[in-house]
Amino acid sequence: MRDVFIVGVGLTEVGKRVDVALRDLAAEAVVKAMEDAGNEKPEAIVVGNMLSSLVEQENLAALIADHTGLRGVSGFKAEGACGSGGAALLAGYSLVSSGLFDKVLVVGIEKLHERPTPDTARGLAYAADADYELIYGISFAGLNALVMRYYMDKHNVTREEMAHWAVMMHENAYHNPYAQLRKKITLETVINSPVIADPVRLFDSCPLSDGAAAIMLVSEKYRKLNDTPVKVAGIGNALDSPDLSSRFELDRFIAAKLSTERALRMANVSINDVDVAEIHDAYSIVAAISIEEIGFAERGKAPKLWAEGRFRPGDKPVLNPSGGLKARGHPVGATGVYQVAEIAMQLRGDFPGLKVGGEVGLAQNIGGVGSNVTTVVLRR
Amino acid sequence: MTTIQRIWRLRNRLIRLSGTKCQDCGLVTYPPKAACPKCGSRNLIEIELPREGEVLTYTVLNVPIKGFEQYAPLIIAIIKLGEAKVLAQLTDVKPEEVRVGMKVQATIRRTAPTLDGVVPYVVKFKPVRGEEASLKEREAEALTA
User: Fold this and answer.
1) Is A121's CB within 8 Å of B78's CB?
2) Could A245 and B31 be called an inter-chain contact, meaning their C-beta atoms sit closer than 8 Å?
3) B132 to chain A nearest CA, in Å?
4) Could you tell me if B25 and B81 are in contact, meaning their C-beta atoms sit under 8 angstroms apart?
5) Strand order through the sheet with B28-29
6) Both A196 and A215 in a single domain?
7) Are residue A335 and residue A190 in the same domain, yes or no?
8) pLDDT tens digits along A129-180
């Protein structure tokens, strides 16, 4: 396998982007990434997306390539629910490391504000098991709520401890010009916010987001396209059941553990070497279990650690300096690409929000309730 | 919205609550799988799960997904049924009465109409209360309704 480097990144502001069409939102990120990579064009594009059917558009690779002057390149869409960005990165990495291509552009794109919210919410629940879960009308927030209650009961975690995560994410996002929710909040904001699916409250949850991100992946031959190339040192993916009923343990994401182990082994680094990470906190419970499965905390201890002040700028590791899905936002199929772009910029030193620097960074993107997890390790 | 085809395919499982049991490692799984999630064996048999169990965790949805608005507040639980766990709706109980560890039993009830306008019946769970009519009677009643 050949080494793979990131030589260009491009992000759009996350939010309610009804002002732009899907193709134009994607183009904004694609152009920025190509400019960052010395205006070099890719030979192939891989598009991460979950729900473009909401805007009645599939065949995204052709649409985006054509719209951005890349007619004729190779490409396809990769899907892994909310983990579609990670799936696209896995595919893009494989295309370069295998030697099939030298330059592959990975694009993440999602537009969730095109349709009425009930349509979007139903679409997001397609990540679950349609035959055995959706048939009861449960939403994606509801599935996470089942895990949250089980976890809090089992590990004696308080409502207030859980709430600290959202407060921290909003503090971080306050500095991020790409973030959707750039305002600071208090514990009371979280604890008194409306109940969506008990015990999940509005501020335990990420917002609905539109956004696009792009990353240029290249082989050794093209690493000089950028003055500060960042190496994709390791990448791992793992799958678990889409349904919760057949999970062996309801307070664990085994796929998160496996994908982390695979990425770290490939990168030949220990979890203690990681300076900064962007993790998938679609709900505060997902942040807690992710932190534990990645290995930043013992089981059941993550909320206590973040309530005590851990994982903030100055700590090792710093988690989600972007503001995470909670406050940067969660443009579903783009999120995994945002995370890796953000970590690459942290290691390069040019992230436009909170700068934490470091040598080794990690990004973790989840599809479903922990059922499709991609973990990427980057090295300066 | 679901379809009549899906309800027809799942009719036995949605009424009889069947899971799969691995003939090699013994693992019981719900929903049924084509191979054992633990050992990978394809030597599985379909079994009927017990119809009484206890609530492991639950949620109350003020906003169910589109098509299920009439059931709000919708109570969904994961129920321990013998060796398996089953996600299903709770019925005949108020949200504030639900507790982790509560004993519940299967019952057959209507659910949201399909795209074709058919009203399907599925398994839901209600609290175990001594004076209730027997489960068999309730099922017969529901199926002939």
Assistant:
1) no
2) yes
3) 24
4) no
5) B28-29, B18-22, B44-48
6) no
7) yes
8) 999 999 999 999 999 999 999 999 999 999 999 999 999 999 999 999 999 9
